[in-house]
Amino acid sequence: MIFTQLFTALMLGGAAYTDVRYKKVYNIWLLFWFLAGICICGIKFLPPVLLTSAALFIFHVLRMIGAGDIKLISLMFAYLGFKNGCIVAAAGMMLGAVYAFYKLYTSGILFERLLYFWKYTVNTLKNKSVTKYYDCKKDSPNLVMPLSPFLLAGFLMWRLYSLCSMSI
User: How far apart are CA 150 and CA 157, in angstroms?
Assistant: First the structure.
């Protein structure tokens, strides 16, 4: 258990670094942690990776989450288990959402982006067809934000909470 949490922290830390610095979570990095997970946990490591990847794939198709982030989340679920993986992912996503709102507000485009999301949702429901949410040809590249630092922060918050609740 402690090894998988240590591996998760190292995996998320490395991914956060490359995501912030190079705007990419490298597949070679993820492959290393995937193979490490197989070596440590055995074949039981595969189902969480495959199920989580399949469940999150729609967000990549819609261009809401990058493929590297989906693979990272899938590995995180495999290392931590579904319950703890959900807690960490939810905490990370909430932190990311708060930062995104802050970033949009300070750049003066919060209302514009909320309106864009509303129109996207209405068009999707009205036309009964799903289109890409983010289009790099028409949307600003400044709207893309790295997810892995927030997943790392969510992991650290979860781990700190776990440690504090054990001492009580």
Answer: 10
